[in-house]
Amino acid sequence: MIAMLLAGGQGSRLGVLTANVAKPAVSFGGKYRIIDFPLSNCINSNIDTVGVLTQYQPLRLNTHIGIGIPWDLDRNHGGVTILSPYEKTENSDWYTGTANAIYQNINYIDSFNPEYVLILGGDHIYKMDYEVMLDYHKSNHADITMAAMPVPIEEASRFGVLVTDDTGRIVDFEEKPAHPRSNLASMGIYIFTWSVLREALITNANIPNCDFGMHVIPYCHQRGDRVFCYEYNGYWKDVGTLASYWEANMELIDIVPVFNLYEEYWKIYTKSDTMPPQFIAENAKVERCIIGEGAEIYGCVMNSVIGPGVIIEEGAEVHDSIIMQGTKIGKNTKIYKAIIAESTTVGENCNLGVGEYAESLYNKKVYAADLVTIGENSSIPDNVSIGKNTAISGITVPEDYLNGNLVSGGYIIKAGEKR
Question: What dihedral do alpha carbons 79, 80, 84, 86 form, nearest 10°?
Fold first, then answer.
């Protein structure tokens, strides 16, 4: 079995966090990136051939994966391969759907002549042994096996829902049904027998935006292929919104975390920069945190995830926040419930995350939590106050803040910046 990892997504619901970086390359848990989790699952499941399909803002992702050394995927045969859209003699296209992306790489898959192909998303946080799922696929003589997770029935209408018979065979699909007949939500993880998938991709090749859930799997089901549901009951988190991304990070710092990064038998691998040790000053205060390598803490940090190389100066306080790599927090600045992306500078004597919650004036679908969200390479001047549910991206100056304030629900997106 080889794996095809779909990592080309924009992740637009993460707002300014993904303005310049693909969602799978966003930092998570201090030292990791989101794509580290499915990649680590592959090598822990003894899958040594992984094609990573990239498209949106791929540079950071490509640099992070490299030749796959951290995941032991630097192989002469197989290993990890970055698969970007490329110029062809005809029908040169961007990837226009999940199935279309796989279709455009049929030659890559054929070169390994696999019996089975595993389709994965690059933007979920979980641990799964794909070998166990493959054994289930084989035992049922299945053509397709779809991983699904039980969800509360009142939430099932937000998902693609699978209806199964007593044997686990899928008898019906319901895409975000108003009145779901099942609580089994599709996780977007599929094992296909390659001959079945290959024929389905070629037959459906001309469908615009060809997608697995919308087109390929219903096509296979309608023609009578054996489609089974593999029920997964472990931890699985779609970190597609700012609120869920923040929650998943905060769960890592629980006394007994639901999702444990410290298990010896199922390690999460990543590309780590060579950095000095963290430094906690004599008068600093740190409680229930993850602190990355090379971080320097001179102030107070509570219930937060601090990335590598972050500097938190004297008198500064950080509460319930995610501060990503290379960011600097100035003296006497107070931060409450913020997500601050990489290489950002926050000035002295600032207050972030204060006041009452207000609806976003910028994008209500993306910014709908009481978080301050600041994009990478941004700058916040000294002596400003920033409310809740706010978005900032770019180099801001005192004149951008009315009377030194950005009200709750407000935003400052500098020219040339997105979302």
Answer: -20
